[in-house]
Amino acid sequence: MNIFKKLAVTTAIAVSLAASPSLATERIALVVKSLGNGFFDAAAKGAEKAAAELGDVEVIYTGPTAATAEGQIEIVNSLIAQNVDAIAISSNDPDALVPALKKAMDRGIKVISWDSGVAQDGRMVHLNPSDTGLIGETIIKLAADYLPEGGDVAILSASSTATNQNAWIDAAKEILPTKFPNINLVSVVYGDDDSVKSTNEAKGLIANHPDLKAIIAPTTVGVVAAAQVVTDMDLIGKVNVTGLALPSEFKKFIDNGSSKAVALWNPIDLGYSAVQISHQLIKGAKAEAGATFSLGSVGEITLDDTGSAAMAAPFQFDASNIEEFSKIY
Questions:
Q1: Which CATH number belongs to the domain containing residue 273 in this structure?
Q2: Contacts of 201 (CB under 8 A, 6+ apart)
Q3: Could you read off the pLDDT of 147-159 as tens digits, one per residue?
Q4: How many other CB atoms are found less than 10 A from the CB of residue 230?
Q5: Of 233, 264, 295, which closes a domain?
């Protein structure tokens, strides 16, 4: 039986997930960019699954109400005071969180980043959801596959400091001239993983670029906002929306034609893997180049020279399979 316990954190709601907290010998905090995001809610389900399999783990699921580094720093300091065993964080800023996370490690708390990383000094391991270059290529290919003549595209990202999105965009820019020479990237804007701001940014892209053929949003919040704008402005068939999306949130936009296809890794597996890695660090595993970590039922990873590894390749969702996967996550 799962026990849900609210913990007092000024800018967040923390939920404790464990088979039985009285029996748990380890407490692992899963810190997300912001609460109320379907991607991270799915990751929490995976974390809960890992805790149940491991048997001696309590997962504290927490994050700020808005996707800010300041909110996460406050939460990290609270977790240090609670003397948790590990912090697994998807960060809102690669550098701003380093001092607080170093303080946590100095207190003996194991620290990993996942999804969106922190600088190497601020963590022991970073789990990328997929290979950065492959994600960058994938998000462009999702648009290019439906633009045989090429054309103007724009990117609607999360925050301007989001480590993962920035790396993917850089990889996409690098590959454009060689693999997608007919695709013209006209703008990159930032919606801060906020629905209202993402909506306004999508409207701005359409207004400022009358020949725009596609909006690429490598964020589950931005891609939904952009698809809703295209739907509301009666631009289906004129502007294709693509990027990284949760099937359950995005199915209606594949169905109505505002999007041809999107991609994503499994966030349930990502949360599950983050807890598996944290557990092994608590048990004494060394975070060093060449070290191999089990991801339980997901597989295994081997750390590179920066202490990083990639979980899996992105998977494409389109009209042929969105129905099936929308029932899963």
A1: 3.40.50.2300
A2: 156, 189, 190, 191, 222
A3: 999 999 999 999 9
A4: 25
A5: 264
Q: Which helix (H) or strand (E) holds 227?
A: helix 220-232
- Quote the CA–CA distance of 203 and 91 in Å, as a whole number: 27
Question: Tens of pLDDT along 62-109?
Answer: 999 999 999 999 999 999 999 999 999 999 999 999 999 999 999 999
Q: What are phi and psi of 59, to 5 degrees?
A: -100, 125
One domain for residues 169 and 112: no
How many Cα atoms within 13 Å fall on the side-chain side of residue 30? 33
Q: Is the dihedral of CA 55, 57, 59, 60 positive or negative?
A: positive
> 132-144 and 163-179 are packed helices; what angle lies between their axes, rounded to 10 degrees?
60
Query: Do 306 and 255 reside in the same domain of the chain?
Result: no
pLDDT at 14 (0 to 100)? 59
Per the prediction, the chain carries an average pLDDT of 93
